[in-house]
Predict the structure.
Amino acid sequence: MTDASDESDAADPDVTAGDPAETGSGPSGEGGRRGTVVVPVERTPTLRATVAHAVESAASGEFSAVHFVEIASWRDGDPESEERTAEAERILERVLAWAEADLADSDADETDVTIAVDLIGSDDYLFGPDDYVSVLVEYAEENDCDAVLLDPEYTPVGNTTLLQPLEFALSNTGLAVETAPVTRPTRRERLRSEATGVRFAAMFGLSLAFYFVLGDPLYWFDWVTGVASAAIVSITLSRISFDADPALPRTPLRLARGAIYVPVLLYEIVMANLVVARVILDPRLPIEPTMNRMRVIVGSGLPLMTLANSITLTPGTLTVRARDSDLYVHSLIPWARDGLFDGSLERWTRFVYYGRSSARLPTPRERDDCAVLQGPDATEDLPIAATDGGEDATAEPTPTDGAAGDAAEVTDG
């Protein structure tokens, strides 16, 4: 804890983002205040302005406490999790310093406003907005927060903004939701930043190399069209294709491990082709098409895409849907389903993105993270979208429904 009235404590380097750091001791709700607000933070162009707005609102009497939290987009124990945690803690320390400075510059009594920072959500992989909202609501309940202030440029997963999906998901909770009224970067500024970043350079290089594989790198016209095409692809897709900036030595290591994975995947494809062809040609062998669910531990973004596409490329299995950490996969024969549940491709995907030590994990079958959704061996019901406004269309009519129907008939008569 850090008392804002004690400058030496405020500058204490031992304050970390892992433990809530507070300034002031004013009770929540005093003087007609609305309560406390939680502000998810991430390194964005509007972070500084969002912090200033939150502190200004608290100083004007709207809130008695402001909690700045960073929601982890990684899981503890994964390679590089310590580095990412340290980076998040540095951001939170900077936010705390900004908030304390803004509070000191305001006319409010510093002892009436509480400032806290914390890092949350690193216990498990987070995928969509619902996962982030669940972690945020849990923190809000534990700390008596009744409002959420969102940075308009908030991008916790490092590529596309989650602002609108977060607002929609938060609207189903008891928290009041507000977006900080701060000046956002112009379209020209966005284009300039995206056209000069590391992701742009990486995407430009990959796109140009792929273009030359299809064309002639010794022909000048292919250079002109290749550079133009790579620039367009990089400007439009660099923020979408990469979850984080390519960095040393992480990116070269991933490329090297990916090169090792390619022949392994080709071997799996060839073997699956032979098995499926044998089953098709031999009528005595069983064909049992089923839908299956497998909860994977590879993270979101590129790792999940790699695993889903690897499964689809392997004959006998087809990834139908990826929903958060669940992959819904159609299998043609029992052999393909058993191989899916044995988790070979999942382990190789973790090897590519996280290293050899991360590939040593129990299989989906051993973790009880798999289920058969169809056929005589089904262990779970196949999820089917409900109709008629969300009610089960197959449900038996209730007595109330029958009475209502009789009443309608009498009225019509």
Remarks:
- The first strand starts at residue 36 and ends at 40.
- Residues 1-33, 386-390, 397-413 have pLDDT under 50 and may be disordered.
- The two ends are 74 Å apart (CA to CA).
- The chain has three domains: 7-179, 187-241, 250-372.
